[in-house]
């Protein structure tokens, strides 16, 4: 009798084990662009205008924490599979000191974080607007941390080489040089400036990319070529994206047209670019990331993540209701 119970017990244990490993293998890696996306605590992810950073096996997602309209700092989430995100809290908090440049009432938009191999520091740049001035200040803000999840320490803000700086992104090239790409001159100009070796400041290598009234820059590099997706300037409302390509980050940049394909492609699927993640360049895996803004409730703005495909070497973003991370 005892023997039978034992055998049954062992079979149940083996069965449970098998079941567990099937579940593990069967982790759902489906992306549903535009759907509500919850973190591992079942809270809706609050990381708008965001950017990603990979360190080791972990991805970090930094973004704007938004209330109904307020800008409430920068959040950070972590994930190993790009689908299940754990909230790691506030990476950069608003200051309680009302005289601070990052006091409540101002704006921190489009935060991007890069890692500096020489200093071992995580460096965050973002679009900073000072309290009670709307979008007048047009400055780049910089913060730094020893850890990817922060807390980041706010350092300073400025206009790169005196140029207005609103929507922006960061890009680290193969040789470790980093660049800040930014909308300038009331957003009529898109510029790029090379950062100093510690990534905490700008150099004088600061060039106009084009004057086409574009914002929301998102860039990646493939086989030595740079690709840049931008939006038009219509506030929170969607518009048509364009793709430019170049052999040097300083240009010349060639217009390749609108890379979006599918329903609402001419309005970037009701979204606006924010970042392009290189998942695996050898396997041609890149993810285009955009925000579907909800100006009446910015916190509820949705995320559009879509894979980039290539046609004759030119990137395209085909709408899909859902797709799987490979
Ligand atoms: C468009 C920008 O891309 C957003 O980041 C934000 O600044 C809105 N304009 C505000 O209208």
Automatic annotation (TrEMBL):
Gene Ontology molecular function: any one: hydrolase activity
Coiled coil (residue ranges): none
Keywords, alphabetical: Glycosidase, Hydrolase
Membrane-crossing segments per the record: none
Keyword Hydrolase among UniProt keywords: yes
Pfam families: Glyco_hydro_43
Signal peptide region: none
InterPro entries reported in the protein's UniProt record: Glyco_hydro_43, Glyco_hydro_beta-prop_sf
Similarity annotation: Belongs to the glycosyl hydrolase 43 family.
Name used for this protein in its record: Glycoside hydrolase family 43 protein
Organism this protein belongs to: Flectobacillus longus
